Structures are given as C-alpha cells and as structure tokens.
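Re: weekly structure request thread

Next one in the queue (477 aa):
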Amino acid sequence: MTAPLRVANCSGFYGDRLAAAREMVDGGPIDVLTGDWLAELTMLILAKNMMRDPAAGYARTFVTQLEQVMADCLSRGIRVVSNAGGLSPRGCADAVARVAGQLGLQPVIGYVTGDDLVARMDELRAAGVDFAHTDTGERLGGRTVLTANAYLGGWGIADALARGADIVITGRVTDAALTVGPTAWHHGWRRDDWDALAGAVVAGHVIECGAQATGGNFSFFTEVPGLERPGFPIAEVAADGSSVITKHPGHGGMVSVDTVTAQLLYEIGGPAYLNPDVTARLDSVLLSAEGPDRVRISGVRGDSPPATTKVALNYQGGWRCTVTLYLTGLDIEAKAALVERALWTGIPGGQGAFESVDVTLLRTDKPDPSTNSEAMAQLRITVKDQDERKVGRAFTARVTELALASYPGFFGSGLTSPRRPGGQNHVGSGRSFGCRAEGPGAAWPGRRCPLGRQGRQRQSWPVVPQRPGVRMAGRVP
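Done, posted below.
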C-alpha cells in the first residue's frame, strides 16, 4: 500500500499571500504544492486583461511564487499542481518555462486544456444545450459570451503526472481536482474507485480555500491563536481516500474539528457534492481529532459522477454608476426623501429611464454622535443600464445640480462616470461594472468631496504654489 500523499495548499484565490508558497516549501515535508487561483469572477478579470494584452490570460502571481520555490521543489521531488493557467494554460506554462530557463532549471511542465468552450458555443447551442443558470434557471439565450469554461476533473492532472510532469498547470478545473488528480496518480486509483475518489474530493474541498481551514473567516476567531498570520493547510491523503488535515508546526492558526467543519460546509448545496470525477456523499463524512492541529476525515462514500458538468460563463453586463450622499443632523428620512424626489424629477422618465435602480439608506448615524462620522447616514443611489450615456454625465450632472438646492449639509462621494462594460457571471449571481471619475470637478471613487465645490470648480489644471512675494489677489494695472 502506498504511503499517504501530503498535499499542501498555498493559495485560496488570485491575490492570496504571495509568500505562502515559500512558507509551505520551507515549513516542513510536503509531496505536492497546490493552489487555487480561479474564482468565477477571476475568469472575467482575466478576460478583461486579455482585451488589453492577449498574453495576460493567466494568474501572473503564480509565476512569481514559483520562481521563488522552483529549485527547491525540483531538488526535493515536490510536484506543483495549479489552476493558475486560467484562460491560457499554455501561456502560463510558457511563462514558467522562461523563468525556469533564467534559473538554469529544466522542469517537465505539463498543461491541461479542454475546458474553454467559447469556440464551441454555437455547436452546443445547436445541440440543445440551454446553459440554464444553476441557481435561477435563467437561460443564457443568444448572449455573446466573453468566457465559457467547463469544470474539469482531476484525471488530466493525473495523466500529466504519470507522464513525468514536475509542474502541472490547468485552466478551469474544480477546486478539489487539484487534490484528486495527484492522489489518484500517486495511489493508482481506478476511475470507478468511488469511495477513495470521494475522500480525495472532500480533502481537496477542505484545503482549497487556503487559510479558511486553519482559522480564517472562522466564526469563533477569538479562539484561534496566531490568526495575524495563519498557516496554510495540508491534506495527508491515504490510499483508501481517508485523510488528515493539518498544517506546518509553528505556523499560525489552528486545525480543529470546528475549523474543518466550517470549511467543509462552505459553498455546498446539499449532501450530494457533485464533481466531474465522483459524487461525494457529504452525509457520510466522519471527523475526529487525532492530535494537536490534526483532524482525520474518514468514512466518505462516493457514487458515480453526474452525466454533465458545470460551465462558468461571463458576458457583458452593462454600465453602472453609484453615488453616495451623506445626511447629517435631524430629519434623516425626510432629507433622503427630498433628494429622491428632486433627483428623479430632474431626469426624464425618472427611475424608469434606467434598466435598474437601487436606493439604500444606510443608518450609520448615531443619536448622540461624538464624531462627524457618527453623525452621518448614507444615501446610496445606484443606476445600471446597457446604455453608457444614461448612467454617465446625464445622471451625475443631475446629482451635482442639487448641491445648493437641496437638504442642508449636502455632500457626497462617488460622483463617477462609467469607464468600461462589466460582465455578468452566469454561474454566480450578479454583474460587475467599472466606474471612474471623469473630468474636472468629479470625485474619485471612495474620496469624499463637497458637491458644492465640485459643481463650481471647473479648472482642469493644478494650482501650483506661488513664489514668495508674488500675490495671487489679482492683476496689477
């Protein structure tokens, strides 16, 4: 029987701790270094990056991290498995190869493709695939997509490792596949070893989000030592699919039945956890403490996988602009109502002129405030539409016009105009839009400015300090 495979995680998302790969390689013995870089939103971000630079379709921080540890991984036989390939697994592999050459190293680099379905959308639609939203049932229809990626399983990874790859880079695979692939290869599992595969899925699911398994985002965070810098998790996966979740000694955070349970229940929809390789029965999972920072996962049962796989799609979602007005003093509700009446009266068609409108009054004010911030409520007004012009100056100018003609103490932030279309994620539940400040007198997002000044100041050049002795009052005849 093969020894347990020690699978370490060093990333839970694109932007996670850059030093984590180095920490996991230096912190103790591991066999495989993995990381998850791809949320559904990340695919949209990478697509936008590729609009500016066709070579920017992968998570570049992964290449930086690998540059730091590649030599040590090769010398110690640590395999690296990552989904950082995003929309360009080959591009990521090429970037890693260039770094390896600069370091004088010669790793065997494999990459897994097949998840990108953009070129096949017409074919799949013609075959009757409706791409219904998994939560709402909404059909994709004839929308033009920016990205379309099927969630692949772990067998492509296992095949690459069997062919001698030291580093395996994938596009869109399930998060758990980053653990399933290496363990299936290491233990020589068959494709119908359902219980073992299900155990690996559960182990992969626990470690996929990095420090969330070691106390991050944990409801009882006050019980977690060293949470200022928690360590990343390790899954020691045995030949029967059982595993022990742990971390390196001396690293912050903790691994307990509670932290593992919290992560186990994260992002699941029911007891049947569907994956392309196996259906894991989460109602069969047994957790037990095996020692300090060691939790055993056992008893996991698996069934055959579903006949279909999930596909994440992103498409252009429209334009959005958000303005936040601050209300102080008495009669907060009356002030908010006045702003709304005045604003919608000044826009032809009122709220109905936009695809959607959201107005929220946030009562962040306190009855007896001791500071200015405690005296302020926030009226947040968001408009969205497919037509950029509607949510641009045509909207923000109407807000600016209220500066001297509305409630007392009128000021706000986020008086912005849209910069570029966002995208809607057809697996998630919302749209992403971009905004920027535009032109003299506009406030940058997050910067609070009195709108009265914004409406008056029309200079487009900076005011430079004058030299001593030069008066600014006026022109001398």
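The chain has two domains: 5-115+151-309, 316-455. Confidence is low (pLDDT under 50) at residues 426-477.
Next request, please.
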